[in-house]
User: Which sequence fits this backbone?
């Protein structure tokens, strides 16, 4: 459904803000012995349940019929953003890495630009340059994090899994854009998270990781994180994509790392202040550069239209 550009900008910031604690919460739960794939299942199951409950209470369950009208398309969306991303990210984080696996999620904005080349909404060179600048800032912030006591480095296989997860999120974002421009966000979020949760449940059982092997306090954390972090993030991001092409919205994801510094400090991670500060400056500089390019392009086009009128 229609979203103004200003609202889309705000929603992009909100999505990054909501996403920022995810890594530190699941890392803490994993350190307590929660299987990573089981955690990813809960992070999708509870928001899916919440979305379905809202649709039911609002008398809007008929809107889920959008799946039948575009079944193949929705299955690809769910495979990328509801299953592939969460499964690969869970395996990457379980593979022994902390900062590397976390950092490589932020390759997703660059991949959104790449995938947008196959759509009518191609990114311009200025947006790509701003994203490259922002990614350098992400690298600096990731390098500033020394991890909690006893943390180990990422394995090469974990890096590949994390990069695969980033590619899944980028593909999901680019493919979701045409749908959310015309359809309500809530049914789509319910379908993507619901299908993903079912697939992750089956994966957990097939790998011997029981999704029920969590304590009550851990379950409470997963429910809260699933609804408040993943569910609201998904809704905000899809609503953002209703107003902006994926490549234009992509730079907002970089804000997840500056916001996340507060969560890193709270989780007991060491932070090298000057590296982190330099990374924050580059991220905001890259975001400004990318968005100013979009603004100038829009003004030029409107000037042309008025001139022709």
Assistant:
């Amino acid at each position: 459904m229609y979203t103004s550009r200003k609202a889309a900008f705000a929603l992009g910031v909100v999505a990054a803000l909501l996403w920022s604690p995810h890594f530190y919460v699941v890392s803490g739960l994993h350190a307590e012995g929660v299987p990573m794939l089981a955690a990813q299942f809960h992070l999708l199951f509870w928001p899916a349940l919440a979305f379905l409950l809202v649709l039911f209470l609002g008398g809007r369950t008929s809107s889920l019929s959008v799946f039948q009208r575009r079944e193949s398309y929705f299955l690809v969306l769910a495979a990328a953003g509801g299953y592939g991303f969460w499964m690969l990210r869970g395996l990457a984080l379980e593979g022994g890495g902390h900062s590397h696996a976390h950092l490589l999620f932020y390759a997703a904005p660059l991949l959104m630009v790449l995938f947008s080349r196959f759509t009518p909404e191609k990114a311009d060179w200025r947006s790509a340059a701003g994203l490259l600048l922002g990614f350098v800032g992400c690298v600096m912030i990731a390098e500033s994090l020394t991890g909690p006591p006893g943390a180990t480095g990422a394995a090469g296989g974990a890096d590949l899994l994390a990069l695969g997860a980033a590619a899944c999120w980028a593909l999901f974002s680019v493919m979701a854009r045409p749908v959310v421009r015309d359809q309500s966000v809530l049914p789509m979020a319910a379908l993507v998270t619901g299908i993903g949760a079912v697939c992750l449940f089956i994966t957990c059982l097939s790998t011997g990781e029981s999704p029920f092997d969590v304590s009550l306090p851990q379950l409470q954390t997963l429910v809260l994180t699933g609804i408040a972090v993943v569910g609201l993030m998904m809704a905000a991001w899809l609503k953002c994509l209703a107003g902006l092409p994926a490549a234009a919205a992509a730079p907002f994801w970089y804000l997840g790392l500056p916001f996340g510094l507060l969560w890193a400090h709270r989780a007991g991670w060491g932070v090298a202040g000057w590296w982190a500060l330099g990374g924050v400056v580059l991220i905001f500089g890259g975001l400004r550069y990318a968005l100013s390019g979009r603004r100038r392009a829009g003004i030029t086009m409107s000037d042309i239209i008025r001139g022709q009128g």
In short: The beta strands are 145-147, 270-271. The CA atoms of residues 114 and 190 lie 27 Å apart.
